[in-house]
Design a protein that fits this description.
Number of helices: 0
Order of helices and strands: EEEEEEEEEEE
Helix content: under 10%
Strand content: over 45%
Number of strands: 11
Radius of gyration: 13 Å
C-alpha cells in the first residue's frame, strides 16, 4: 500500500526558507518521487522529481532555489525551498509512480499514480 503524507508547510516571508517533507512507505522506496504544487485558481504544476538513482529534475521556475532529496533509510522525501517568492504560494503535493520518472516535470502530473493530501505554503 502506497501512502504519502506531507508535512512542514506554513507561512514564510519573501526571501525566506522552508523545508517540507513527505513520508512514504518502504514499499514505495524504489518509486519515482516528485513534488507538485497548485496555486489557487491554477493548474497543478510540477516542481521537482527525483529518480530511483537520485538524479534530480527541476522546473525552471525553481531551479537554483529548491532542492529535492530523499532518505531511503527514513523513507522521507524533502523539498528545501530557499529565496521564496510570493508566486511560490501554493498547496504542495508529494507524488509517486512505480514506473520510470518522466524526463521533465512539466505537465507530467498524469504520470503519477499516488498522491498525498498536500501541505500549504504561503509566502507573504
Amino acid at each position: 500500500h502506497v501512502q504519502l503524507v506531507e508535512s512542514g508547510g506554513g507561512k514564510v516571508e519573501t526571501g525566506g526558507s522552508l523545508t517540507i517533507s513527505c513520508s512514504y512507505s518502504e514499499y514505495s522506496s524504489s518509486y519515482c518521487l516528485a513534488w507538485f504544487r497548485q496555486a489557487e485558481g491554477k493548474e497543478r504544476e510540477g516542481v521537482a522529481l527525483i529518480e530511483q538513482d537520485y538524479t534530480r529534475v527541476y522546473a525552471d521556475s525553481v531551479k537554483g532555489r529548491f532542492t529535492i532529496s530523499k532518505d531511503n533509510n527514513k523513507y522521507v522525501l524533502r523539498l528545501q525551498m530557499n529565496n521564496l517568492k510570493r508566486e511560490d504560494t501554493a498547496m504542495y503535493y508529494c507524488a509517486a509512480t512505480p514506473f520510470a520518472c518522466p524526463t521533465t516535470v512539466r505537465d507530467r502530473a498524469a504520470d503519477f499514480n499516488y498522491w498525498g493530501q498536500g501541505t500549504q505554503v504561503t509566502v507573504s
